[in-house]
Write a structure and sequence with these properties.
5-stranded mixed β-sheet; globular
């Protein structure tokens, strides 16, 4: 599968910006290209290891990390779209990648448990002790970091990645998306055969869950593709470890089940692009053609002979079906040099789109103006 190239490219210069309390931010990439009318700037320039994001009721941006073991609160007090302060509200955690916000509380996912910080926006500099919501998840760190979100049903969705590149695992919780009540009760498996999803969202009109999934390694540069999947109901199986993409049997496990046993992806993405965060664009700032469409943060390949990904892509829908896949923003990979790695996306109340970058330790803001 070849990388897609957007047919409209407008060179943009990304300047280094520093939040008032964050001096000596790392240099950030110049030359991010976007469609006409779009621009990109630094929202917060010193957020080491920035990964998954969620927005609090008072406008606080909460950011999880993986290797840093920290959770941040990013605050824009002036409303000028540049962060005034980055506050570390938790540290020493095990891969606290996932963050979600509900009813004044911040939920944080570690490898084997989900924590809750109550009334957090009133206590950013004096956080409360966390409440353990559920500590029953497997403790395997291979694909153990989690992306979490509350669904339209009010339940918290928590994936459990496969503890391997490709394998059959006896524990039925591996390679799934699970869900539970906000208090941690009624934990159940929602979807199976999901190797490692680090991003999902619900269609703003149908309420159906869509999610990215990272394909297995060591089948060559061009196989298998990453996936964008749709789960209209609970109980579906999406193929891992038996089948990949729409019709690729696994060399070790593909003969164990027919392809018809599983749900194929809605869209095959680039091979090894590491498709992570995804969001339906629900704002009104961007032109009409982008509304209710899917943006995907591609973290970039790690074991491909020619690098691919390191960009923001766009999947266009017609109704509830995926039609096309194209590059929206690129430039984090330039002349073979990796300058940044997009991780997650967050639609802001004003309609702008935030992008986290765990390599640069930064949050960018993409906006549109005619």
């Amino acid at each position: 599968m070849r990388p897609f190239r957007f047919r409209w490219i407008l060179p943009q210069l990304l300047f280094l910006a520093t939040a008032a309390s964050c001096s000596a931010a790392r240099p950030l990439p110049a030359g991010i290209t976007l469609p006409p009318g779009f621009s990109i700037a630094v929202y917060a320039g010193k957020v080491p290891g920035a990964r998954s994001m969620t927005l609090g009721a008072r406008g606080t941006l909460f950011v999880g990390t993986r290797d840093a073991g920290k959770v941040y609160a990013v605050v824009d007090r002036n409303g000028d779209h540049v962060a005034d302060e980055v506050i570390t509200i938790a540290s020493g955690l095990q891969m606290p990648n996932g963050v979600a916000f509900r009813n004044g509380s911040l939920y944080v996912a570690e490898v084997s448990r989900v924590l809750r910080y109550d009334n957090i926006e009133a206590r950013l500099k004096n956080p409360p002790r966390p409440v353990t919501v559920n500590a029953s998840f497997p403790d395997k760190t291979h694909h153990g970091w989690k992306f979490i979100r509350f669904g339209p049903d009010g339940r918290l969705y928590v994936p459990v990645g496969a503890p391997c590149n490709v394998c059959e695992e006896k524990n039925p919780r591996f390679a799934t998306i699970m869900r539970m009540d906000p208090d941690g009760s009624h934990l159940e498996i929602f979807a199976r055969g999901v190797r490692n999803t680090v991003g999902f969202d619900w269609h703003p009109r149908t309420g159906e869950l869509w999610f990215t999934d990272n394909g297995r390694d060591w089948m060559g540069d061009d196989l298998p593709p990453d996936e964008l999947n749709r789960a209209p109901r609970a109980g579906l199986h999406f193929g891992f470890p038996y089948w990949h993409g729409r019709d690729i049997p696994d060399p070790a496990y593909g003969t164990k089940h027919p392809r018809s046993d599983f749900v194929p992806p809605e869209m095959e993405l680039g091979p090894h692009v590491a498709a992570l965060g995804m969001r339906f664009y629900t704002g009104t700032m961007f032109p009409e053609g982008y509304r209710n469409q899917i943006f995907i943060a591609e973290h970039g390949s790690w074991n491909r002979s020619e690098r691919i990904g390191y960009r923001i892509t766009l999947v266009r829908l017609r109704g509830n079906r995926a039609l096309s896949y194209e590059t929206f923003a690129e430039g984090w990979l330039r002349d073979g040099t990796v300058r940044g790695r997009p991780v997650d996306l967050q639609v802001m109340p004003d309609g702008s789109l935030l992008v986290s970058d765990d390599k640069a330790g930064a949050i960018y803001r993409i906006s549109y103006r005619k």
